[in-house]
Amino acid sequence: MSAPRPGGRSARVVASVHRAVVDLISRGDLDITISHVAHEAGVNPTSIYRRWGTRDQLVLDATAAHLRRNSPTPDTGSLRGDLVDWVVEIEHNLVTPEGRALLRTLATAEDHPGHARDVLHHFGDVTTVLDRAQQRGEVPPTPEQVLDRVLAPLTLRTLLGLAVPDGYGRHLVEELLASVPQQC
Amino acid sequence: MSAPRPGGRSARVVASVHRAVVDLISRGDLDITISHVAHEAGVNPTSIYRRWGTRDQLVLDATAAHLRRNSPTPDTGSLRGDLVDWVVEIEHNLVTPEGRALLRTLATAEDHPGHARDVLHHFGDVTTVLDRAQQRGEVPPTPEQVLDRVLAPLTLRTLLGLAVPDGYGRHLVEELLASVPQQC
């Protein structure tokens, strides 16, 4: 899905559909359907099918967007700065009751994205962060490494209700970058 | 929960309760209750409450035991050998439809274990593997590291339906051990 122009009609539809998914899930409706969401958002179910295809892809997109609060893709000028900005926002939103409910709903999905790059694209497009670092001559981690080393510990801990210490996301990014050898 | 004596009455109850949980979840019952499980296993609900306390603790215990197929705690004589044995079994069982269903059910739990050590205790008691390595003078990773670096990537990939390449669990163990400095 390409990003809709901010402020346009299409952006308003995306925002209201995302909001409807988050609201429904927060109220405990883990078995949401596209027709529930369409009703809640006041849009035509056809518009949802056309843009997201399936309920599970919609849940992934709305969940990931919520965890990033639709923040713009970080662009601090360095890979470390971008990844830290990115993870701090996700970490902050994961531990809310809403974040937990979203993750739990995600875990019940059957229709999956298939590739790490596709998953990360939903999460505030961190793939752009990695591509940009490469263009600057930095050696970025792979999308698989970002998924395994940063997103996976945060999400498993959240799902299992384990402690996520303050600054843990930043620590995971630092550990990952330390293990990716940089060119001199 | 201490391990019941193999072959005893208590061991038979544990096995049949675990089996009932796995069967119910495999048949699509993600909202299992203790009374469902008791009925399916042919045991008194009171015995389940007494041993496991809550539905969520029972699901965690049955899930983790299934992912290890109740194998004994590995004891190969080396930390590397033990952790590889341990993860290969889990990896193998996670990717089955049963394994996925179990993980999904786990993700809907509300009553959580609280500490990484408590989680790992259920997973074939890998904490014993770590303690034994320390007694031999090896420098084991912490339970938190095993959770974040080995279990988390495997479970997140399984939950999201992403590829888990052959030998991936072993690779994760090798990477983790390479990052834990050993004494000389």
Automatic annotation (TrEMBL), chains A, B:
<keyword id="KW-0805">Transcription regulation</keyword>
<dbReference type="Pfam" id="PF16859">
    <property type="entry name" value="TetR_C_11"/>
</dbReference>
<dbReference type="InterPro" id="IPR009057">
    <property type="entry name" value="Homeodomain-like_sf"/>
</dbReference>
<protein>
    <recommendedName>
        <fullName>HTH tetR-type domain-containing protein</fullName>
    </recommendedName>
</protein>
<feature type="domain" description="HTH tetR-type">
    <location>
        <begin position="11"/>
        <end position="70"/>
    </location>
</feature>
<keyword id="KW-0804">Transcription</keyword>
<dbReference type="GO" id="GO:0003677">
    <property type="term" value="F:DNA binding"/>
</dbReference>
<dbReference type="Pfam" id="PF00440">
    <property type="entry name" value="TetR_N"/>
</dbReference>
<dbReference type="InterPro" id="IPR011075">
    <property type="entry name" value="TetR_C"/>
</dbReference>
<dbReference type="InterPro" id="IPR001647">
    <property type="entry name" value="HTH_TetR"/>
</dbReference>
<keyword id="KW-0238">DNA-binding</keyword>
<feature type="DNA-binding region" description="H-T-H motif">
    <location>
        <begin position="33"/>
        <end position="52"/>
    </location>
</feature>
<dbReference type="InterPro" id="IPR036271">
    <property type="entry name" value="Tet_transcr_reg_TetR-rel_C_sf"/>
</dbReference>
